[in-house]
Amino acid sequence: MNGFIAVHCGAGFHSDSLRKDYQKTCYTACRRASETLSRGGNAVDAVENAIIELENSPLTNAGYGSNLSWDGLVECDASIMNGQTLHFGACGAVSNVWNPITLAKQLCVKQCESLSLGRVPPCILTGQGAKTWAERMGLQIVDDQKMVSSKAFRNYKHCKRKLKRYSVQNDLKFSPLDTVGAICVDSYGVVASGASSGGVSLKHEGRVGQAASFGSGVWAEMSRDGTKPSIAACTSGCGEHLIRTQLAKNSAESLQESSPTLGLDRCLKEKFLESPFLWDIPERLGGSLALTFNPQIGEGELLWGHTTRTMCIGYMSTEIAKPKCIISYLPPKVQAGHKAVVSGVPFKVSMQPIPVLQWEVTTETNLNGSL
């Protein structure tokens, strides 16, 4: 299977001292996704495996090493969307699940199944219910402390000390916003998108961010009749800002304009920076990684845009030897949260005839009524 994968390590601020480490993390994630496609996996599999690599890195605010809540615990959000079936799976504020993106993928996949007595499979699970479901699916469950990296604990102590000195309610500068995400198109033309996040530092127990919210963290929609391109997007930034503006869905749909670059730029300006839903927010912090793809000719365009100081991305085709990884910067005199920068690159994918979608409908009987 051929395909194209793109990942990001977040829109926020990436220090120069860690620049090579962030780029290496994106590099490794792209390689793992490319290998997944080369072994016959599809776009959803590639997105999952790319994000697993990102979650396992202590550099990122996802999975292991996530920001800690007020009580010093890791609570993760993750989601994945299949652009062919349009199914969506997400988990929110879940603890002890080593790779939350795998839980989200399992929820997405099981949308094709039916339950006994006409029950509907869940697409979003949170908290203890999400953990219990993950255990039932055989996912890796670990102790609380195994999810905490030394970097996250140092940041937690720093934030606590800072709050004792200053009564600042909306200071996001000390809180890493490096949510991770991935988008992919495979040689069948199927697109997928995924995101994973540990949320903002010192968040309230049970808080759910954009990475688990439909239309805010991820979006993927495959071309049905060839009249419109396939689209996918994943976002990063302050979750509350992204939820209010449904930035993933709006970013993806903006690429269906005649000029995808101008479309994404207009989206970030009109539907994010100038959004009436953010009227009370002085600095609007967000970023989007998106792609548009024409399956008729096997050509697409990858774009990224952000209002944060930096955004770290990587991308790769299965038909090239190694990924390209960069850190995108706002212009030097532009203040973060007030203007956006947009850039992009074209790409190609060698296509294969798409197989007929088989709906595997199974009935699951469970006497205790659990899912």
TrEMBL record:
Q: Which residues form the signal peptide?
A: none
Task: Output the Gene Ontology terms for molecular function.
Answer: threonine-type endopeptidase activity
Q: Return the InterPro entries for the record.
A: Ntn_hydrolases_N, Peptidase_T2, Taspase1
Mind naming one GO cellular-component term on file for this protein?
Answer: cytoplasm
Q: Which domain of life is it from?
A: Eukaryota
Give GO terms for biological process: protein maturation
Active site annotation, chain numbering = 179 (nucleophile)
Q: Where is this site: Cleavage?
A: 178-179
Q: Coiled coil where?
A: none
Which Pfam families does this UniProt record tie to the protein?
Asparaginase_2
Q: Which PANTHER family match?
A: L-ASPARAGINASE, THREONINE ASPARTASE 1
Q: Which family does it belong to?
A: Belongs to the Ntn-hydrolase family.
What is the designated name of this protein? Threonine aspartase 1
Species for this entry? Bicyclus anynana
